[in-house]
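Example 4.3 (complexes with small molecules)
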Amino acid sequence: MHTNQPSKVRSTFYFGLVATAMVLHACTSRMAEAAPAPPPAKSVRVVKGDPPPTSQLALLMRDMTAFADSTGKLVSAGKELPVYPVRFKAIMTAEATPGMVEHRTFDPYAQAWLGQLDALYAAPASERNEVFNSLVQTCAACHGLMCPGPLVRIKKLTIQENED
Ligand code: HEC
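Answer. The structure with heme C bound is encoded below.
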């Protein structure tokens, strides 16, 4: 492990890039195809037998989204973080929808995201809001490059900084 990248500045910069890059990519249409019948379920069920409706990575992403959503609320409320989500290390190996991931691009962003996750857990409580937002910006940075569909949702995960 070498340098972590705690830099909010850098993430913020990516965030800007993302907005520009998102138009060029097409994960959006795939999202539309996948969208028609989302069960209003509380948990994700994988149906066996039929071709899997979602990849391992997509399922992991849903889990990451739920995590970011609930963790953002905890952080906003000044509460403790949930248990460290070790399961997200699988981002490096989870199988993606065919053609979706180009690993040369994906892998460094996935590493950066895991680095931000660690940074969140290492941050003093007083800095958690900012570090949490950097984590969300790292979600957005990757999505701007390869799967812009969820960007709107991702941006909504951002929480208030310097609350008081
Ligand atoms: C390193 C790149 C990368 C990072 C970081 C990343 N994503 Fe993703 N995300 C992807 C890719 C690629 C897909 C498409 C996966 C597939 O279809 O197999 C995806 C899919 C998704 C989906 C759609 C899942 C579905 O139901 O099909 C959501 C929602 C999502 N990501 C949210 C997030 C959130 C929230 C974060 C941060 C907490 C995040 N992503 C971080 C690359 C990334």
